[in-house]
Design goal:
Elements: H1 2-36, E1 41-43, E2 46-48, E3 53-58, E4 61-70, E5 73-78
Antiparallel strand pairs: 1-2, 3-4, 4-5
Length: 96
């Protein structure tokens, strides 16, 4: 009986190493899939991909915010800049 136990010991090591390789390969595949399909940041106007800058209204104030990934989660980083406001163009000459 002692000879059976000594023959199975090397196989146990192969199983452990094979299992670890499988786990590492699976995690690498998940990481690659995540970067191929990043999660969008959501806001009242829709969705924004990481890197996009959007004007968000929070607590009655509007501010620019950039969508970014933090610990594999979409998150807004506020830029402490006011949202740009359009103004009507000044007339350049007579009409008509």
């Amino acid at each position: 009986m002692s000879s059976i136990g000594s023959r199975s010991a090397p196989w146990a090591g192969y199983l452990v190493v094979g299992g670890l390789l499988f786990v590492v390969a699976s995690m690498a595949g998940l990481a690659a899939a995540h970067t191929a399909h990043p999660c969008p940041c959501r806001y009242a106007g829709g969705e924004a991909q990481p890197g996009a800058i959007v004007c968000l209204k929070v607590d009655g104030k509007q501010s620019l915010a950039q969508c970014e990934m933090v610990l594999n989660n979409p998150s807004w980083r506020f830029l402490n800049k006011p949202c740009p406001v359009a103004s009507p163009a000044a007339p350049t000459g007579r009409v008509g």
